[in-house]
Amino acid sequence: MSHYEVIVVGAGPAGIAAATAAARSGSRVLLLDENPAPGGQIWRVGRSMLKGQSEGEAAKNHALKRLRDSGASFLFGYSVYDAPAAGELRAICESGEAADCPVWGEPHAVSLRYEKLILATGARERFLPFPGWTLPGVFGPGGLQALVKGGFDVKGKRIVVAGSGPLLLAVAAHLRGYGAEVVCVAEQAPLAQMLPFAISLWSHPAKILQGIQYRAALGSAPFHLGCWPVAALADIAGGKLTGVQLTDGRRTWTEDCDLVACGYHLVPNTELASLLGCAIEHGLVKVDEEQRTSVAHVYCAGEPTGIGGLDAALVQGEIAGLASAGKPTRSLQGRRVAERKFARRLEAAFRIRPELRSLAQPDTLVCRCEDVTYAALEKRSGWTDAKLQTRCGMGPCQGRICSAALETLFGWKQISVRPPLMPVPVSALVYSESQPVNLKENQ
């Protein structure tokens, strides 16, 4: 069992900032992430194809250099699946392909001890079911972007980007940069809902400039406000996506396309925080001005405390890292307050319209893991009843996809989080008893 003064779970921008601040303050720090490299979704490894984004690349490279030079240790390719006791985490490298796994190709579980813990677990995309949303070729915007950065070829493919949130414009611009033909971007939020948010951006000139760059990168591709998909269409054989039906509430039309990227903003990853007993309010981890949670010696930064974007993640991560090391954070509090206000405006601007709650048809799958339809769920009284009668939320994703949809459709909230937080093979648990973790310092 390895022991650290500070363990940071999640190596996105918030986790990177936290680990860097804590390590530079003299703490013995471990940064842990399920991905093979730091960066998270927003700084995922992959060549940027957008011109004019050198400033963002420079910021990322600067943050990664500071992390490497900080003295922090890294453990990549491992996912936290349990917190069996105070001050202890268990993590697993299921594929056995991480550099730290003692035997290549074998699952490997490790136990880690900490004095302070910083949760920077990020967020995931919200999916709302509609007819055809499970067809091959229908992705989440962030998911498709990650695939493209990893080598998935979209050159010449016609893509409709739809749903809600600032991620849509950014993803569409990136896809165009990789050679895709962006047919259109469909944002479900109406102009009247978006206008106050747009006006408020006068105090964030960098965000305005970024938005202008993304829109310019789209060229002549239409950007529709108050527009959403009602069905994805396939050929007669039912295996190939051919288009998507869009509506603005007055008329409905079909856009021919090869791929659809559809997602409705983001959902915070709060499962580990819930397992640890941290207070959750309105779906977010409750923290104080120094990012402390309700559990002693546990901090949280970034999207689990509120969807606020890169700048919010960076300042919250730095505050959490400094606070965990006993260093003052007063100089950062102004930025923290400003970014929290921005996050609240963001939430209001992209709130879900009521029409999206009635898109699913009786035979539309809601729980993809267990093939549970909307009709089967309509008869249930809540999460527990749905699990007992349909196995909804009991598949490999353990409700991470369908829980947000069910909350939107029926108002149901998950009532418990239990270990393991992900499917774990028994062989890995047995194997880990005799094999210590081989940490790579500053790799």
How would you explain this protein's 3D organization?
Helix 1 (13-24) runs parallel beside helix 2, helix 1 (13-24) runs parallel beside helix 8 and helix 8 runs antiparallel to helix 9 (333-349). The chain has helices at residues 13-24, 54-69, 141-149, 167-177, 191-200, 205-217, 271-276, 310-324, 333-349, 374-378, 383-390, 402-410, 426-432, and strands at 2-9, 29-33, 73-76, 79-85, 88-93, 108-119, 123-125, 138-139, 158-164, 181-187, 223-225, 228-234, 241-247, 252-256, 259-264, 266-268, 280-281, 284-285, 298-300, 365-367, 372-373. The protein is built from 13 helices and 21 strands. Strand 20 (365-367) and strand 21 (372-373) form a beta hairpin. It has 443 residues and is of the alpha/beta class. 31% of the residues lie in helices and 23% in strands. It has three domains: 2-124 and 267-345, FAD/NAD(P)-binding domain (3-Layer(bba) Sandwich); 127-264, 3-Layer(bba) Sandwich (FAD/NAD(P)-binding domain), CATH 3.50.50; 355-410, no CATH class. Strands 1, 2, 3, 4, 5, 6 and 19 form a seven-stranded mixed beta sheet that branches. The protein has a five-stranded parallel beta sheet with strand order 8-15-9-10-11. The chain has a three-stranded antiparallel beta sheet with strand order 12-13-14, with no helix packed on it. The model is unreliable at 432-436 (pLDDT under 50).
